[in-house]
Specification:
Layout lengths: L2 H12 L2 E2 L9 E2 L2 E2 H6 L11 H14 L3 H5 L3 H14 L1 H14 L18 H14 L3 H23 L4 H11 L2
Antiparallel strand pairs: 1-2, 2-3
Helix pairs in contact: 1-3, 5-6, 5-8, 6-8, 8-9
Length: 179
C-alpha cells in the first residue's frame, strides 16, 4: 500500500467536519484539529478545510516528518500502523510504542541494545528495527505490529478510564484503529 492509499483511507475514515462536545481537541475536519490546521496556514472556518490540504498535512507531519517513510522501506505494515496511530495520538506517541515494543522484544538486549524511548525515529531505532527483522525474519513484523497495537489499545482504555467523557470515543477507537 502506498502512502497515498494510506492517506486516502485515513481521510475516508476520519470524514469531514466534526465538532463533538466531548472532544478536547475541538473541531476537526478530515481528522485535522483546528490547532494543526491553523499552524499549517488554514485561516478559514474548519468546515472549509479541503481534503487536499488535509492530505498534505498528513503527508508532511504524520508520514515524512516522523520518518515513517524510512520505516516503510523495512516494514511497510508497521509503517502503516504507525502512521494511523500518529494521526490519532501524535507521532511521538506512535514512535514511542515502537521503541517500547522493540525494547521488550530484544531478549534482554541480546539482539540489539535497548533504545532510549524518545519518540523519534533516528539511526538507533532504525538499526534496532533492522536487527529485529534479521533475527526474527518474515514473521517478526507481524509480532512487532501486534505489540504496537497492544500498546495503543491499552492507551485507549486508559484514556477512557481517566476521563469518562472519552468513553464516547472508545468503541470507535477500538473498532477503527486496531487491527
Amino acid at each position: 500500500m502506498t502512502v497515498d492509499q494510506l492517506i486516502d483511507d485515513l481521510l475516508d475514515r476520519e470524514g469531514g467536519y466534526v465538532h463533538h462536545p466531548a472532544d478536547r481537541g475541538g473541531a476537526t475536519c478530515w481528522g485535522i484539529t483546528e490547532t494543526v490546521a491553523r499552524a499549517n496556514g488554514h485561516a478559514g472556518p474548519m468546515r472549509t478545510l479541503s481534503r487536499a490540504t488535509a492530505a498534505d498535512i498528513y503527508r508532511r507531519l504524520y508520514w515524512l516528518r516522523p520518518g515513517y517513510d524510512r520505516v516503510a522501506a523495512r516494514a511497510p505494515l508497521l509503517a502503516a500502523e504507525l502512521f494511523d496511530t500518529a494521526a490519532n495520538m501524535g507521532p511521538a506517541t506512535a514512535t514511542a510504542f515502537l521503541q517500547r515494543a522493540l525494547n521488550a522484544l530484544n531478549r534482554g538486549a541480546s539482539d540489539f541494545p535497548d533504545l532510549r524511548v524518545d519518540g523519534q525515529i533516528g539511526g538507533a531505532t532504525l538499526a534496532a528495527l533492522d536487527a529485529f527483522a534479521a533475527r526474527r525474519g518474515r514473521g517478526g513484523e507481524q509480532v512487532l505490529l501486534k505489540a504496537v497495537e497492544a500498546l495503543q489499545g491499552e492507551r485507549y482504555l486508559t484514556l477512557a478510564e481517566r476521563r469518562p467523557a472519552n468513553e464516547a470515543f472508545l468503541y470507535g477507537w477500538l473498532a477503527n484503529r486496531l487491527g
